[in-house]
Amino acid sequence: MKLRLIITGLMLASLLTLGAQEFTQVESIAPVAAELKPRLPEWRPKIVERFADGNPAIVLFYEEADNGESNPTKRMSFHQTGRTKEETDLIVITKDDPAFKLWDSNIVPHGVSIQFDENGPIKSIRYYDKGLLHGTLGVFYSDGKPEQTCSYSQGQKHGKAYSFYEDGTKSEDATYAEGLLEGDFIRYFPNGNKCSVTQYVNDVAEGKMMEWHENGAIKSTQNYVHGKLHSDANNPACISYNDDRGIVEMRDFNQGEPTGIHITYHNNGRESYKTPYYEGKKHGKEQFFDVDGTVIGEGKYEKG
């Protein structure tokens, strides 16, 4: 009972840090079981692996079924110190079940699986449905704060996924649909400012991707079409800026291939380098400039 209370408290504390709306989204997929099965005295333990000193490393617990057969119902593994390393509820499946090939076994996790570090705190909580992740996966720092949470449905990421810095500040925010990234994938700096935003459609980058410096100034913009860098009629595919918002580089692309004149700039705004591309290869005069605009080097390319 004490273990189950700890688990419940950790899950609620970690998920509530996401805020009410995000909590609802993460919890939208209900697991097949909310708690570990309590170990019953009639279960038969079997040590399947030992450490060199003879202490148990992995123990399976068997429960007698209605037909008189004994089926594994729980697996426990241990650190060499004797502390619990993992406790996972099990089920027996058939070769026709989707998880059979995944585990290469008919004995698979079903319900709750909890991993512990050597000092005792919970490292992660996973929920399974006949061997497939189903529910909210949670990974925790040693102090119990969430490191990652992700919603799964029948083995695929589905719904919200978050990552966090050790102080609890969000580091990543993503949404999945049947295993594929969908919508905005957002990264954050430790100070809470946005680091980047990339739009996805069916796991492929689409539209404008934006990056920022930690001070909030724009760092770059990139335009994607079907996952490939692509310039539009008015803007290069890639524009990069320094933290004072000055342009440092402009590059054109055509369906992922560099094209047109690529230019980089000194901090004073003068060109530092430029070279033309044709069909993905350097083609024409390449030039280097000092901060005053004087040519300090050049060469010529013929299709690369």
Q: Percentage of helical residues?
A: under 10%
Corresponding CATH architecture of the domain at 95-301: Alpha-Beta Complex
Protein structure class:
mainly beta
Count of distinct strands: 25
How would you spell out the order of helices and strands? HHEEEEHEEEEEEEEEEEEEEEEEEEEE
Indicate the overall shape: elongated
Strand content: over 45%
End-to-end Cα distance, whole Å, is 69 Å
Chain-averaged pLDDT: 91
Largest sheet, strands/sense/barrel: 25 strands, antiparallel
Over the alpha carbons, how many angstroms does the gyration radius reach? 27 Å
Within the CATH hierarchy, at the fold level, what is the topology of the domain at 95-301?
A: Outer Surface Protein A, domain 3
- Level-1 CATH class name of the domain at 95-301: Alpha Beta
Indicate the low-confidence ranges by residue numbers.
Answer: 1-27
How many helices in DSSP terms? 3
Keywords: Signal
Protein name: Toxin-antitoxin system YwqK family antitoxin
Signal peptide: 1-20
InterPro entries: MORN_2
In short:
With 304 residues, the protein is mainly beta. It is 9% helix and 54% strand.
Write the layout of secondary structure elements.
Elements: H1 2-16, H2 20-26, E1 44-50, E2 56-64, E3 70-78, E4 84-92, H3 99-103, E5 107-116, E6 122-129, E7 132-133, E8 135-140, E9 146-153, E10 156-164, E11 170-177, E12 180-181, E13 183-188, E14 194-201, E15 204-205, E16 207-212, E17 218-225, E18 228-229, E19 238-241, E20 247-254, E21 257-265, E22 271-278, E23 281-282, E24 284-289, E25 295-301
Antiparallel strand pairs: 1-2, 2-3, 3-4, 4-5, 5-6, 6-7, 6-8, 8-9, 9-10, 10-11, 11-12, 11-13, 13-14, 14-15, 14-16, 16-17, 17-18, 17-19, 19-20, 20-21, 21-22, 22-23, 22-24, 24-25
